[in-house]
Amino acid sequence: MHTPALMPPRRRGRPPKSRDALTDTRELLLRAGLETLTEKGFATAGLDEILGRVGVPKGSFYHYFASKEAFGLALIERYAHFFARKLDRHLLCAELTPLARVQAFVDDAQAGMARYDYRRGCLIGNLGQEMGALPESFRAQLQAVFADWQARLAACLRLAQQAGEMSATADAEQLAAFFWIGWEGAVLRAKLAQSAEPLTVFARFFLAGLPR
């Protein structure tokens, strides 16, 4: 006897008009979410504010994401890809020496924070600070993002060793880990002080302290 397939449960709100409309609106929601969550915490950011930026009724949100948790995981993935491209643009720049590439990344980050009047920080760092109030599913994804950034910087530091800018016996992986631990704190202080000075201080001492 043939058993008909179960129909998927209907989602709340008005359905999207087309597949293209669904994709476009999903992208707008992700963009609005990134803008909001680089300024505010995930736990305190209301869906109403994000939906209001895009003009999407609250009930329709569930056509694009199964839950706020799924939305958050998608935002982490999107930000990770965006930031990885930014890192590669600087850390793989063949026109600069390896350590000058690190400084170029710092300079770009300073300009980016100033552009938004120090309201926006690092989405991954923001979420990491409030992990105790977030879904447990975020933890592994956030750690994987930091590990990826650390690996990219470590590769650049190994190039600095090959170029004679750093001691060949230095531990590039540990130095990269140290950089990101300190950098996230510097970004937090820059937001608090509304100044690039914390970023400048951290980068100056990190680069000056590298084993030569």
Nutshell version of this structure?
With 212 residues, the protein is mainly α. Helix content is 64%, strand content 0%.
What's the SSE blueprint?
Layout: H1 19-37, H2 47-54, H3 68-91, H4 98-115, H5 123-129, H6 137-162, H7 172-193, H8 197-208
Number of strands: 0
Q: Tally the helices: what do you get?
A: 8
Q: What is the helix fraction of residues, given as a range?
A: 55-70%
User: How would a crystallographer describe the biggest sheet?
Assistant: none
Residue fraction in strands: under 5%
Q: Could you name the ranges where pLDDT drops below 50 across 5 or more consecutive residues? A: 1-16
CA distance, first residue to last residue: 77 Å
Structural class: mainly alpha
The mean pLDDT is: 89
Shape: elongated
Q: Care to describe what's here?
A:
The protein has 212 residues and is mainly alpha-helical. Mean pLDDT is 89; it is low at 1-16. The protein is elongated. The longest helix has 26 residues, at 137-162. It is built from 8 helices and no strands. It has helices at residues 19-37, 47-54, 68-91, 98-115, 123-129, 137-162, 172-193, 197-208. Helices cover 64% and strands 0% of the residues.
Task: Give keywords.
212 residues; 8 helices; mainly alpha
